[in-house]
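Quick log. Single chain, no ligands specified.
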Amino acid sequence: MWSSLVHALLKELVHKAISETVELKQYPSLRVEVGNAAIESLDRMRDESKKATLQLVEMEYSYLTVDFFRKLPQDIEKGGNPTHSIFDRYNDSYLRRIGSNVLSYVHMVCGGLRNSIPKSIVYCQVREAKRSLLDHFFTDLGKKEGKQLGSLLDEDPAIMQRRVSLAKRLELYRAAQAEIDSVAWSK
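-> predicted structure:
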């Protein structure tokens, strides 16, 4: 439940952030891709959160804290007769005390899980989202070719071609400036 609530809240924040980012409004395809990438990351983080939570619960039920049960009195005089069967050996009050101690242990473990599970969810989802929400998207974006990037920007092919030619011209101007500077400083 917690995991789903945190996941829904994070998705809502992503949608709000994307819709309120003015710079993305002029690039609808890029906005959709960023949103999809963010949701994919959040889904991955939610799955990791579920795994971590299940591991916490599994850890608790597969390993009992023995020290808790060492406090139980083991005296034969307190109601036990070693010659009788386990059911006849102890009186009712002794068995109730054991049941009460086991119930106390269960409550202690549940209390620990009530504290640990929300921490685990925040750690696996919120902290991870802050740290690396769009890392996979940026990696994938870096692998794309110029035409693929242009399609994300919804750019007119004529404008894209003009930008490419202007970038080449700028590079020529910079090379010429470097040549002029090298000659001017050598005198």
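The chain has a mean pLDDT of 83.
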